Here is the input.
Amino acid sequence: MHNPALAALGLDWRYLACDVHPDRLREAIAGAQAMKFIGLNLTVPHKLLAVDLVDELDASARTWGAVNTVRFEAKDAFGAWQPLAKLNPDDIGELRSHGFNTDADAITRSLREDLGFEPRGASVLQLGAGGAGRTAALKLASDGVGALYLVNRTQSKAEEVAAEIRSRFPSVRAQAGWPEREVDLVLNSTSLGLKPGDGSPLDEAKFPLRRARAVYDMIYRPAETPLLRDAKAAGCKVANGLGMLLYQGVKALEIWTGQPAPVELMRAALLRNVYGPA
Ligand code: ATR
Here is the structure.
């Protein structure tokens, strides 16, 4: 999605994927900086490690404890740090790395744009309390959901996340367990549904899908998981996690370029890349 967007913005940049062993991450970031890269994206486990490796942390990275986007910066003529995109390459002296997190905002942006879901005051049943689940639950809480029900295979993890939410966001009713009533959203953050032959992460004996207004699955490949298939059949509004992937990329591109990203072009490129030509 990035290369077509860079071409559309008229930028002579390239987005490349590199395999880096976690033990070499410090050197990899320093090397990219020395080569005056514009920036980087990082994925698991690097995005957790990078929190301690970048020179400066944006509030987003501090809040969510992960860096998925790095922007390299240098000082301008007035001594202020600027993204490399804004500087003449010949004027670049001292450099630094600046870490951001664009994942958390992408969750609520995708829920809003793909499902019309507004977090404030809403009730949510979240399946899964791993790394991605914890971030999603905290982000929903910080956006003011009214009630959050957390269900996880390992119940103690759901209880831990619920307790963390109650202490950081006391106005949110967060609890481990199934809701007794209808919810505005069911959100799957488990990995169940990724592999062929996987079942649904939702036990309909505990919570029938007709009690959910909308269902979001963070999985985007396959495009329709058993959960989304069942949810559609039950009449729920549904969306998969492609929007999350798209919007974290959109925000990262805007951080690097300082310009609005061509969102629809990026979406089309992503759809082609993930699901093949239409
Ligand atoms: P991620 O960073 O993608 O969130 P993770 O932290 O390993 O990865 O979390 C994976 C999530 O999927 C967890 O909620 C996990 O449940 P456990 O905490 O009990 O491990 C859930 N998960 C994985 N496989 C599952 C399965 N077969 N059935 C139900 N839940 C599953």
